[in-house]
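From the methods appendix. Each design record in this collection lists the tokenized structure first, followed by the designed amino acid sequence. Records were kept in a plain field format so they could be parsed without special tools. The example shown here is representative of the layout used throughout.

RECORD:
FOLD TOKENS (212 positions):
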């Protein structure tokens, strides 16, 4: 019996050590990816960051953050790149954010990026893609409902309104209250950990400055 108990203890210690090693390796890989994201300036560097996160996602297939960041990087690469590349990159971003959603349901951060992508899909062909505007608004509203303290859905909402013509209910004056609310929430927001989403504050400040 004692030998059996010792074997169980050894097995548990082995599993704990393996889990810790995997966790540290995951955090290290994610940290490298976030450095790539932070220093990215053009479509190619954002695409490189996206590829890094996608590689992590294939290994850490129960973690939602790699697919989330890969989606976000493809989104930004699409916005910064050539117009003909925008739609394919946005489609890829949508597929990746859907994967993240399958791993972490009812997640405010995921619905924020989903709404961001959907609005940009609409912007590619506004006359024929108005349905994306409705789905973007629904995604962002859900992101706020899921976490009213998250500043990012307010930022994305404000940004969407900022670039919507005044004739269609948009413009700087309409965007300003949303961006001000985002700014107030950014002032008190603290990410859950070192690899949790923490983007948007500088962008929000840029847009808010243009509203004044």
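DESIGN:
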């Amino acid at each position: 019996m004692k030998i059996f108990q010792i074997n169980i203890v050894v097995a548990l210690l082995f599993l704990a050590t393996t889990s810790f090693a995997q966790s540290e390796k995951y955090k290290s890989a994610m940290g490298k990816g976030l450095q790539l994201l932070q220093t990215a300036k053009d479509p190619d560097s954002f695409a490189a960051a996206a590829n890094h996160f996608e590689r992590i996602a294939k290994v850490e297939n129960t973690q939602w953050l790699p697919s989330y960041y890969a989606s976000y990087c493809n989104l930004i690469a699409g916005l910064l790149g050539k117009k003909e590349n925008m739609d394919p990159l946005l489609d890829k971003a949508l597929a990746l954010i859907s994967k993240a959603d399958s791993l972490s349901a009812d997640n405010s951060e995921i619905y924020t990026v989903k709404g961001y992508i959907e609005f940009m899909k609409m912007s590619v062909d506004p006359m024929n893609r108005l349905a994306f505007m409705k789905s973007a608004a629904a995604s962002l509203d859900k992101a706020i409902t899921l976490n009213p303290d998250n500043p990012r859905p307010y930022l994305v909402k404000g940004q969407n309104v900022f670039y919507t013509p005044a004739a269609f209910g948009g413009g700087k004056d309409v965007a300003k209250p949303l961006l001000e609310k985002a700014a107030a929430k950014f002032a008190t927001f603290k990410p859950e950990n070192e690899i949790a989403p923490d983007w948007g504050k500088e962008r929000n400040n840029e847009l808010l400055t243009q509203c004044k």
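APPENDIX NOTE: The two ends are 76 Å apart (CA to CA).
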